[in-house]
Description:
Layout: E1 5-12, E2 18-19, H1 23-27, H2 36-45, E3 49-50, H3 64-73, E4 87-92, H4 102-110, E5 116-120, H5 126-140, E6 145-152, H6 161-172, H7 181-184, E7 193-200, E8 209-218, E9 227-228, E10 231-233, E11 239-241, H8 247-252, E12 259-260, H9 262-283, E13 293-296, H10 304-313, H11 327-330, H12 337-346, E14 356-363, E15 368-376
Parallel strand pairs: 4-5, 4-6, 13-14
Antiparallel strand pairs: 1-7, 1-8, 2-3, 6-7, 8-15, 9-12, 10-11, 14-15
Amino acid sequence: MNQVFINRVSKFLPNEPIVNEDMEIYLGKINDRESKAKRIVLRNNGIQTRYYALTKDGVPTHTNVLLTANAIRNLLDADFKASDIQLISCGTSSPDYLMPSHAVMVHGELKNGQSEVNSASGNCCAGMNALKFGYLSVKAGNTANAVCTGSERMSSWMLADHYNKEVENLKDLEEQPIIAFNKDFLRWMLSDGAGAMLLENEPRGPLPMRIEWIEGYSYAHELEVCMYAGADKLANGDLKPFSDYHSVEWLNQSVFAVKQDTKLLDKYILDKGVESMKDAMEKHGITPEDVDYLLPHVSSHYFVDGLYDRFAKAGIEITRDKWFMNLRSVGNVGAGSVYLMLEELVHSGRLQKGQRILLCVPESARFTYSYAYLTVC
């Protein structure tokens, strides 16, 4: 088996950073009313700026494919050209199309010549699953390199216009014309952007990072769905897919809106995260002392103190001075967040040879968790 190295990390963030006060300029106001959830959600999540692939009129400026392709282009130079890419492995929860797959469309945008492609779907762990596919391909010798990406373009899903038909339907039914909290919640949580990594079977560049291992854990066998889109949740916890609804219901009930069961999120996301991380560390025989930087993808600063306390109680306390996050300035970019954290850390000038990095990505969709352990070479 080959060793696998992350030799380059890049990003692409669309347009200019957007402050909290300007979010509804871009997304619009549902029913021409300011959101009641906005202030509460933003106070808890601690995000101060984020990026949207939108104009102030809500017109898209980039597709997810273009965001991803631009992040890949930022990896390239004379020493590693687009034509050198042997595998493109892309993860996202917000593809532009139901089909073809996201990675195929990115390949078509790059026009880099013959490449193998892989698309990882899901939510936040999709980026890590794309990374693991590339890691295993290079490790097994199937390819000598892989370009892996994590990206999101959620802003276009959150435009007020997508919810106004449901509001009109509620008025017709003489019900309160207010979108449910489980839909409005995520409008103030999600951001756009893309990150990319170049994996190779030999170290290159000033500070390559060797991938020691990548682990994934799913608790779908124990827990019901928490975050979903293109479906509605029934009283028994099952999901009814969009294809089982009449087309008029797609608009009247905002079936395609991204929804979050916040009660389930609060109840399970931290406990299962600690359980899975402890299992991963014990499996590979590492302790908190073997971690110099922890890069935890958290959707909200609301969870940070609770996560730290649970780590401590479980005997895997990683001191806060080792935590590296950029949620406040970049926002929650889902499958792209861990790529954007690592890119910022790599270009911060802080890394030194021999340091160890632990990537930690939870996914609330049905409670999935991914971890990767890196050594700076």
